[in-house]
Specification:
Elements lengths: L6 E6 L3 H16 L3 E4 L1 H6 L7 H4 L5 E6 L1 H14 L3 E5 L9 E2 L3 H9 L4 E12 L2 E5 L2 E6 L6 E7 L2 E8 L1 E5 L7 H4 L11 E7 L9 E4 L4 E4 L8 E5 L3 E5 L5 E14 L5 H8 L5
Length: about 280
Amino acid sequence: MTARYRVVGVIAKPHQIVGSYLARAVRFLEGRGVQVRLDRTAAELIGRQGVPRQEVAVGADLLLVLGGDGTLLSMACSAVELGIPLAGFNLGTLGFLTELKKDTLEDQLATIQEGRAEESIRTLLRFEVGDRSFLALNDGVVSKGGIARVVRLDLEIDGQHVAEIRGDGLIVSTPTGSTAYSLSAGGPIVHPKVDGMVLTPICPHALTFRPLVIPGTARVVVTPPAAAASECRLTLDGQTALELDPGERMVVTRAPQTLTLLTSPVIGYYRLLFEKLNWGG
């Protein structure tokens, strides 16, 4: 059967256990006539030559990740910018995004190559700070800097002042990111098909300020007061961090780009929750 994806870029978590699964994946794909491009970390695991990570996706039809959600998040924006799908095998711990199971690796790869995988379209958020713009698949977290002081943040939604948040910070997440840091901070689980974003306070001093689900069309502005005594940091998908100056506005909107995530046609989102969160236990 003709390979659906002729060139596949492969990213792997730098861990010894990944090597055997990576070798199996490469052997299977090359056996079907697929050109495999490995990043240097992945290549070293199986004794091959690789390319810099930022070059793996260039010219590829598909990005394949073997690792955990953090590894997948590190490549999500590259896949979005190049307009190619992303598939992840979970060799980490929880793995909401790296949904595919390593124990059935060849079967799952066959499903992908034969066009039987589900295409889950995921919303991203755009974070604008000054003249800089960033994308996030999971979330952006505004939190305190190195000194353990209370953070004050002015929150505005669609031009209306909503609250002054006092606490450890604020998480702005996509539905995809609702099962990440936001969930740990008490936020709701939101299905990826819901057009919305989630605002979750981190340890708020005002216990009446609860997590808030708002429309995906909303425009959110978060501003540390100009006279703020403590520094604030914005962290995007746990990958990129930048400092926010007092009075510097952060504007959050839904990004025009989306990510195509390839998922199993037999698991489904609710089964994923059941398994990952141990709801059957």
